[in-house]
């Protein structure tokens, strides 16, 4: 039970796993909610997904019987490399098979996980051969299909039906009839249920010479080997022999099952890390619920050596469960299945510091060879991921810091040149509008973010008023430091109450150190000119850097935080996915 903190305050904070420092950071709501979510087993970044397969109207390749189909799953990497990862069993004599064997894959929100499915007819002579030993070149292809994992997960019932095609045949009406493959996804978890408990003790023994004990609880689960593994701690309460701790949260998934044995130990805090055991109890979560409903206490005990035998000495001290409740916490994928969307928006810096777009040294230079510039790379890396979470794929796109033809400098103009609407069709639409704008505006300045943030916030606000199941992600790409810092802070503080996250990507070689003040991860919580503090952190900033082939880019690592930001917003406002 040791700790590595150098002072008593730090030590107590380290021990207090639930909310030991809440009073010192009362305005730090986002951190509190993040911890709250994690304590309940909500992890938006990685989920285990189980894929199951069925098919209809497969081609019959056998002469005297029906086809004997098997599905082979491949993962297609970003560089185009294809790796086989899974095979189902063979279903005999079926053109409408449902396979039993399922494929488990880890879902990563921040990357596009492209899957390739190939259905084979396994020849009769190989029916006694293990599936993994089959040589695929000796089997007949019934067709193949591909999709992104996120395309399956964003379907309301998490099922996607794909047309099977055969590459080796010319595209004719006959070759089109290769059947259909349905892929269904289920999120794997032990339980969404979390127990919230308020625990207290009475008549604790004083372990300190000149003061009362400083008690805290440690809750551990017992594994088969008999070892106890800590899963939860309370804060330390100073000089208190009848402590009532702040609520603790236990996810059923953390402890195995509701009737799994738990050890609740009460320690007296010591700054040297050698905490004294005051007493312990062994109860399951179900037992603790009964203690609460019956209003009874459980006597603590301490192991005591009597001769050569270890006995449990019962103490006067008691453990009580003051409050007990269970809640169901929803995952990011639950919201997707209920129809929630992530809507992508983009704002591009057209200030003169980017350089003349017609010259190769400009950050806006469009290379005739097709090699993308930094702006195009950032748009693509974020857009290729988020596009699957937006049903209509119509994306608001703006520019700022330029002078449209025959007009004053604008700090928020529609990238498509329209004066009426800001949306474009798909990622390709953003790219085309961006290229067109480069030849229809004059680069100017200064670099102001406030206008585009307010515009995005207006869209998010209208959506919220309409009770639409949407969460917005604004990507701002810039080459320089913002010059309207306080106005930007005001806009961000105001937007922190909305279903909106903002990714700021710095391109070029500028020193972006001042920009990090907008990202609360790297500094203090934003405060507006009126003294109001942001309700949560909605900004992530990174300088764009090229990465080596096969690596996850820094932009995609930013995207990995979005599910948590999404859940933080939904949970803090008690927004639940409809069943």
From TrEMBL:
Domain C2: 29-162, 177-301
Source organism superkingdom: Eukaryota
Signal peptide: none
Membrane topology: Lipid-anchor
Compartments where found: Cell membrane
Keyword Lipoprotein: yes
Gene Ontology molecular function, alphabetical: calcium-dependent phospholipid binding; metal ion binding
Keyword Lipoprotein carried by entry: yes
Pfam families per UniProt: C2, Copine
SUPFAM superfamilies in the record: C2 domain (Calcium/lipid-binding domain, CaLB) (SSF49562), vWA-like (SSF53300)
Keyword tags: Calcium, Cell membrane, Lipoprotein, Membrane, Metal-binding, Plant defense, Repeat
Gene Ontology BP term (one): cellular response to calcium ion
GO cellular component terms, semicolon-separated: plasma membrane
Primary subcellular site in the record, as a coarse category: membrane
Family, per entry: Belongs to the copine family.
Protein name: C2 calcium-dependent membrane targeting
